[in-house]
Amino acid sequence: MNKMSVNFRRSEFACKCGCGFNTVDSELLRALENIRNYFDKPVHILSACRCERHNEYVNGARLSQHKRGRAADIIVDGVEPDDVADFAEVLMRSGGVGRYSTFTHIDTRTNKAVTMWCS
Questions:
Q1: What's CA 1's distance to the chain center, in Å?
Q2: Which among 90, 74, 91, 78 has a CA at the least distance from the CA of 34?
Q3: How far apart are the C-alpha atoms of 41 and 78, rounded to whole Å?
Q4: Non-local CB neighbours of 71 within 8 Å, separated by 6+ positions
Q5: Which residues, 6+ apart, have CB-to-CB distance to 112 below 8 Å?
Q6: Rounded CA gap, 20 and 93, in Å?
Q7: Are 32 and 43 in contact (CB under 8 A)?
Q8: Residue 116 pLDDT level (bands cut at 50, 70, 90)
Q9: Between vectors from CA 101 to CA 98 and to CA 48, what angle results, nearest 5°?
């Protein structure tokens, strides 16, 4: 079994290229569990860990937190991305929140990042 917490498996965080990179920051996992518990709905991870090559392939930021196992792009069943982002902004003492039309980005960088509005 590859369960990391009550609601998440390590495989959900793995780099999509199949390279095996699946390191996850404990603060990120804690934030995702808090989001899951707050909305009481499944959280789906669209993208988490990214190796350098996969990050380039998806046109990720050069200093992406995904490359450090500190970021996840998520959707919550039946919840608007803006509502997820609103809660994440309150939840996260540091880190970043990205608002996209179809998903929410959260990361656990050590400084507080300004909310990112993206298309």
A1: 22
A2: 91
A3: 8
A4: 28, 48, 64, 65, 96, 105, 106, 107, 108
A5: 92, 93, 94, 95, 96
A6: 30
A7: yes
A8: low
A9: 50
Rounded mean pLDDT of the chain? 92
Three-state DSSP class for residue 102 = coil
Contacts of 78 (CB under 8 A, 6+ apart): 41
Q: CB-hemisphere CA count at 13 Å for 21?
A: 19
Structural domains for the chain: 10-117 (3.30.1380.10)
Secondary structure (DSSP) of 10-38: GGGGS-TTSS------HHHHHHHHHHHHH
Contacts of 74 (CB under 8 A, 6+ apart): 32, 35, 43, 44, 45, 46, 84, 103, 104, 105, 106
Q: Coil, strand or helix: which one is 4?
A: coil
CA distance 118 to 66: 17
Q: What is the pTM for the complete model shown?
A: 0.91
Q: What is the pLDDT of residue 111?
A: 73
DSSP bridge partners of 95: 112
